[in-house]
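Sequence, please.
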C-alpha cells in the first residue's frame, strides 16, 4: 500500500510509520515540526519505502501518485504544546482534516483520523464507552484541542455519510513509550525526566486525578487491526489500567530508583478528574486488547530516556 501519514515526525506518527514500512508498505510522511522531532524523520529515512514532505497539514497538499490511505495524526498533543499553539491546533484538526478528506476522495483512498479521549472532556461517566457524548467546556483553554477533535470526528463522519468515503476514527487514551519528546510536558515524560535528573516530580493539584496509560506498541497493533475492518465510527484504544498521578509518581520513583521528592503545583484549568477507556468495542471488533502492563511499558520507556538523557542508572 501507499500511505500518506501526517504527523510523521511525532511520537505516534513515527511508530506507526515504522510499523507500516517494516510490513513493506510505502509511507509518504508529512510534518512541519510544530511539535515533532527531526531525528524521527532521519531514522525513518533509512527505510527505502519512506519519503518526506515538510509542509503544514492545515493547508491543502499536492501529492503525486496513487494513495491507498490518508492517515491524519498531525496535531500538537501535549497540553502545554497545544496551549502555546491555539490557532494552529484548531486549524490542523479542522481545516487540515477537511483538506485531507478531500485528498482521500480525490485519490479514492480511505481516511484514518487520530482523535482523542479528550472528546469526553471531564467525563461524568466512568469508564468512558464510545456512546458517551462527553463533558467538554467549549470555550475553556483546552477547547482548542477538544473541540477541534470533536469537529474533526463530525467532519469525518459527514464525508463518510454524504460522499461514501471509507473512514476510521480512533479515540486514543494517554499513550506513552520510547521516542516521546522529553520536553513535551506530558506527565509520563515529566515524571521520568525529573526522576532521572533527581529533580522534584511536579504533581498538578492534589494528584488524585486519574489517567489510564497505554504502551505505544499496543496502540499501533490496534490501529493496524482497525485498518483491516470496515467500521467508520469511533473506537476507543487505550489500556484500562488506571492510576492517580500520585500513584504514577511513586511507580516512576520505584522503577528509576530515584530519590526525587514530590512537589505540588497548581492544577491547570479544566484538567479532567478521571479517565479510563471502556474497550469492549475494540475487543469485540478487533479481537484486540493491550498486552503490555504499565509497569513493563514504563520500564522500557525509562530505559529509552536514560539513553536519550545520557543519565546513568540511579539508586
Ligand atoms: P506529537 O506532538 O509527538 O506528534 C504530532 C506531530 O504532528 C508532530 O510531529 C508535529 O510536528 C506534527 N504537526 C503538528 N501540527 C502540524 C501541522 N500543522 N502540519 C504538519 N505537522 C504538524 O504527538 P503524538 O502523541 O504523536 O500525537 C499524534 C496524534 O495522536 C495527534 O493527533 C494527537 O492529538 C493524537 N493523540 C495522541 C495521544 C497520546 O497519548 N499520545 C492521545 C490522544 C490523541
Ligand atoms: N500532570 C502532573 N504533572 C505533570 C504533568 C501533568 O500531575 O508534570 C497531570 C495533569 O494535570 C493531568 C495528568 O497528569 O491530570 C495527565 O496529564 P498529561 O499532560 O500527560 O495529559 P492529559 O491527559 O491531561 O492530556
Amino acid at each position: 500500500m501507499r500511505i500518506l501519514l501526517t504527523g510523521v515526525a511525532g511520537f505516534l506518527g513515527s511508530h506507526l510509520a515504522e510499523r507500516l514500512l517494516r510490513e513493506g508498505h510505502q509511507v509518504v510522511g508529512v510534518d512541519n515540526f510544530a511539535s515533532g522531532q527531526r531525528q524521527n524523520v532521519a531514522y525513518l529515512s533509512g527505510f527505502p519505502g519512506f519519503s518526506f514532505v515538510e509542509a503544514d497539514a492545515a493547508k491543502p497538499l499536492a501529492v503525486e501518485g496513487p494513495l491507498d490511505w490518508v492517515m491524519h495524526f498531525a496535531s500538537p498533543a501535549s497540553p502545554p504544546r497545544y496551549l502555546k499553539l491555539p490557532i494552529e491546533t484548531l486549524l490542523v484538526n479542522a481545516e487540515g482534516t477537511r483538506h485531507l478528506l478531500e485528498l482521500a476522495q480525490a485519490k479514492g483512498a480511505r481516511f484514518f483520523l487520530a482523535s482523542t479521549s479528550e472528546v469526553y472532556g471531564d467525563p461524568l461517566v466512568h469508564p468512558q464507552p464510545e456512546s458517551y457524548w462527553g463533558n467538554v467546556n467549549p470555550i475553556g483553554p483546552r477547547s482548542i484541542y477538544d473541540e477541534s477533535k470533536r469537529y474533526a470526528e463530525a467532519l469525518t463522519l459527514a464525508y463518510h455519510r454524504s460522499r461514501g468515503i471509507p473512514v476510521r476514527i480512533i479515540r486514543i487514551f494517554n499513550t506513552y513509550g520510547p521516542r516521546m519528546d522529553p520536553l513535551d510536558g506530558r506527565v509520563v515524560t515529566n515524571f521520568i525526566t525529573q526522576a532521572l535528573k533527581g529533580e522534584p516530580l511536579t504533581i498538578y493539584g492534589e494528584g488524585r486525578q486519574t489517567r489510564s496509560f497505554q504502551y505505544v506498541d499496543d496502540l499501533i497493533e490496534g490501529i493496524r487491526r482497525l485498518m483491516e475492518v470496515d467500521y467508520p465510527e469511533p473506537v476507543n484504544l487505550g489500556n484500562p489500567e488506571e492510576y492517580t498521578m500520585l500513584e504514577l509518581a511513586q511507580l516512576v520513583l520505584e522503577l528509576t530508583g530515584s530519590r526525587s521528592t514530590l512537589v505540588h503545583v497548581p492544577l491547570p484549568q479544566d484538567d479532567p478528574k478521571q479517565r479510563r477507556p471502556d474497550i469492549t468495542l475494540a475487543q469485540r471488533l478487533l479481537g484486540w486488547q493491550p498486552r503490555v502492563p504499565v509497569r513493563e511499558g514504563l520500564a522500557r520507556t525509562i530505559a529509552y530516556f536514560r539513553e536519550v538523557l545520557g543519565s546513568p542508572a540511579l539508586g
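The CA atoms of residues 7 and 74 lie 4 Å apart.
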